[in-house]
Amino acid sequence: MKKALIIVDVQNDFCEGGALAVPEANEVIPYINLLMEENEYDQIVLTQDWHPADHKSFASNNNRKVGESIILNGVPQFMWPDHCVQGTFGAEFHKDLNRDKVTHIIQKGKNTEIDSYSGFQDNNHFMKTGLDDFLKYHEIQLLEVVGLAMDYCVKFTCTDAVANGYITCLHFNGTKAVNVKPENGRDAIYDMIQKGITVLG
């Protein structure tokens, strides 16, 4: 059975000192590097948040405060600080992430009008990123997922992976939650388990 490692959004803006820093985010990087060193993956894919500066998920572009919610193209949208803007340092992968074995990069969130948490598709399910096509082309059946953040982009990538027919495993030690609310990370784990995702220690 061919397997791939999906590394979600290990970018400067989500790490320590970033515009949307996930608590303890930097702690997952050595774990992810070790996974790549100790395991044989047929493909290793990075996802990258890659927003235009005028993206509608940014509070600054809606005259809103960070943490508020709006309806954007028919779906609820949390208002984030500006982050992972195309071509900026914040959008770059963290320097400590070993990319020697990476085989593919998927960029998401490029459409100004629609946010994209999942590595597979936007939040409205209008536009696919090409990740599913890439994995199917390479006959991948098993996905292991790590990265940032557990309660948003990691969770939605995992649930879309299951929906697309992949056996899906989340490495708990390879992810951290934003925890906008303290229970968000815990709830994300429960939600993923209910959807058939295996959570590895």
Compact summary:
With 201 residues, the chain is an alpha/beta fold. The protein has 4 helices and 8 strands. Strand 3 (69-72) and strand 4 (75-78) form a beta hairpin.
Account of the 3D structure:
With 201 residues, the chain is an alpha/beta fold. It has a single domain, classed as 3-Layer(aba) Sandwich (Rossmann fold). It has four helices and eight strands; from the N terminus they run βαββββαβαβαβ. The protein has helices at residues 28-38, 131-137, 150-163, 184-194; strands at 2-8, 43-49, 69-72, 75-78, 104-108, 140-148, 167-176, 198-200. A six-stranded parallel sheet has the order 5-2-1-6-7-8. Strand 3 (69-72) and strand 4 (75-78) form a beta hairpin. Helix 3 (150-163) runs parallel beside helix 4 (184-194). The longest helix has 14 residues, at 150-163. The mean pLDDT is 97.
Radius of gyration: 16 Å
Helix content: 10-25%
**Which structural class best describes the helix and strand composition?**
alpha/beta
Secondary structure tally, helices: 4
How far apart are the termini? 22 Å
> Mind describing the biggest β-sheet?
6 strands, parallel
**Number of strand elements:** 8
Mean pLDDT score, rounded?
A: 97
Strand content: 15-25%
Order of neighbouring strands in the sheet with most strands: 5-2-1-6-7-8
Any idea what the CATH architecture is? 3-Layer(aba) Sandwich
Question: What top-tier CATH class fits best?
Answer: Alpha Beta
Order of helices and strands: EHEEEEHEHEHE
| Low-pLDDT ranges | none
Global geometry = globular
Task: Tell me the domain tally.
Answer: 1
CATH superfamily: Isochorismatase-like
Keywords: Hydrolase, Metal-binding, Pyridine nucleotide biosynthesis
Organism: Chryseobacterium vrystaatense
Protein name: Nicotinamidase
GO biological process, one term: pyridine nucleotide biosynthetic process
